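Project standup — Tuesday

K.O.: blocked on the structure for the chain from last sprint. Re-posting the sequence here as requested.
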Amino acid sequence: MQILLNAAKYGTRHVLVLADFSPSTRTTDLEKLFQDFRDRGFVIRWVNDTTALAVFRTPSTALEARNHVHCPFTVCILDEDDMLLGSISGKDLEPSHQRSQTSARTAQRLITQGMGLKLPSSTFGCRELRNQEESDGYKAKIERCCLGQ
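H.V.: unblocked you, prediction finished:
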């Protein structure tokens, strides 16, 4: 049911079916086929050992990719009545989303929050981080976190 809802919501024309390739094929091998489309966004989602989906943001990009790629295995656009829809998750049809850029400030905030520490103010910088790292409480948290204690 969820697959049908997602098929109705997103359609299937933005998805390429990659099939009949060697079971030893890796995700990176498939991504290399579409490296010219990396900036337009796509994601590889596996169905089984010899079938995967290349999910693009738009149907036009998927069509262009299908016409651009020449490989020894099957590459076709997913039809709305394809039997493959019965063997995939509804989330597999969701177009890829570009991840937002992470600044050093955001990374510091996420790391310190994950460790249960707080960033005091917007002037918080390297000196404050160094002081926090040198404190015994910080070292104990790191040890517990890394050693699973």
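K.O.: great, moving the ticket to review. The chain has six helices and four strands. The chain has a mean pLDDT of 78.
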